[in-house]
Amino acid sequence: MKHGDYAFLADMLRRRAGLSLGQTRPQVIEGRLAPVMRRFGFRDSAALIAELRHGREALARAVTEAMTTNESCFFRDRAVFDQFREIVLPALIERRAASRTLRIWSAACAAGQEAYSIAMTLNERKLRAQGWTVDIIATDLSSDMIARAEQGLYTHFEAQRGLPTRRLIEHFTQDGANWRICDSIRRMITFRQFNLLDSYGWLDEVDVVFCRNVLIYFDHKTKANVLGRIADILAPGGYLMLGPAETSLGLGPDFSALDGAPGVFVKGRRMLQRALAS
Fold first, then answer.
1. pLDDT tens, 191-219?
2. Taking residues 85-99, what's their average pLDDT?
3. Do 89 and 121 touch, CB atoms closer than 8 A?
4. Lowest mean pLDDT among 17-26, 148-157, 218-227
5. Could you tell me which residues come within 8 angstroms of residue 164 by beta carbon, excluding any fewer than 6 positions away?
6. Which residue from 190, 187, 159, 157 is spatially nearest to 172, judged by alpha carbons?
7. Most exposed residue of 77, 102, 252, 262, measured as fewest CB within 10 angstroms of its CB?
8. Smallest Cα–Cα separation from 240: which of 200, 215, 208?
9. Mean pLDDT confidence for 266-270
């Protein structure tokens, strides 16, 4: 890939989605663009980028989605889900005892594994049977990933990754050679295609945001922008769950690390002190 084409692509991805190519190797870029080239009938990446320069929106959207990383599995980074179940959830249940409502946002859900893992965790606490209203909002930049997530259909390999046999049997049914999430779990989640650089106004207030393994692809300015927007829609004392490689980020004054729970951050320092004292 020519330097000028690389620079154009990098600038477009930064403007459209906050993505930073960084030191991404040309062969990796070419590999991710290959399906887009086949779909739109381009012989090589030079021809594709030449067309991008003309401002073709459908192509730009397809390229942006192709360049995002959609690797995921059920209960990825199990320690984070242990912290959610054992620390975050009990604190929220106590705090929301009067309203009996919980709102949780999975901000980069890929093919839905993270959102369904959250739903399974909540379902196992039998909150809805106790009269709780539980809303899970799951978003991703990729419309293809959202379509897959809404289906809730996974290959045998995908279903086995991160799922013990007990959960697989309890929450899935076999569909030919694949596994489909049960309707009661799927109904807990609202899926929506969403760019983290767009307006968050439609979200209203949420209690927990899972935004894991996303910020590492943003430059510093974009990270600060996204974290500021997340802080705006988090309830006071709400929780931000990050990936293991993101725990040392400079999060600014809006968030404080929760002692003894790596990757878990609380909105507001005074609320943090209260949470630790309880």
1. 999 999 999 999 989 999 999 888 877 88
2. 93
3. yes
4. 17-26
5. none
6. 159
7. 252
8. 208
9. 70
